[in-house]
Write a structure and sequence with these properties.
Belongs to the SmpB family. This protein has 158 residues and is α+β, with helices and mostly antiparallel strands. It is built from four helices and nine strands; from the N terminus they run E-H-E-H-E-E-E-E-E-H-E-E-H.
Length: 158
């Protein structure tokens, strides 16, 4: 019998602000072109997507503003740039679709998460439309109401 490994959390970094700031319309999975020291840092979980965004230029997609903190032990011989521009690996049809939507008014492309998939780093990107202030308030009220419902149900069941 072969031993099965326990399922581990494959998520490296999440962009929690994205769901608050944008209406997510469509998601894509993109590969990420990385250097060796970046992979080591990602294994240690040292990544942030807070101010990151996707730039579409010359028929290619690029991840800008993602911060991968270099490990002091892994990058001694390399001058590490934590916020360097990284290439996103997508199919040409996917890039064309994203470019078509981004050229429409109000649409943008944002990274949602970095995660491991079969020992490769993947970036989940999304086509999104910015939320207005009243949309953010409505979403906050909905979240609060759902929390209240859960509390009430817990009290009734106990």
């Amino acid at each position: 019998m072969s031993k099965k490994k326990a399922p581990t959390n494959n998520t490296i970094a999440l962009n929690k602000k994205a769901k608050h700031e944008y209406h997510i319309e469509e998601r894509f999975e993109a590969g990420l072109s990385l250097l060796g020291w970046e992979v080591k840092s990602l294994r240690a979980g040292k990544a942030q997507l807070v101010d990151a965004y996707v730039l579409l230029k010359g028929g290619e997609a690029w991840l800008l503003g993602a911060h991968i903190t270099p490990l002091s032990t892994a990058s001694t011989h390399v001058i590490a740039d934590p916020t360097r521009t990284r290439k996103l690996l997508l199919h040409a049809k996917e890039i064309a679709k994203i470019i078509g939507k981004v050229n429409q008014a109000g649409h943008t492309c944002i990274p949602l998460a970095l995660y491991w998939k079969n020992n490769k780093v993947k970036c989940e990107i999304a086509l999104a439309k910015g939320k207005q202030k009243h949309d953010k308030r409505a979403a906050e009220k909905e979240k609060d109401w759902n929390r209240q419902k859960q509390r009430i149900l817990r009290e009734v069941n106990n």
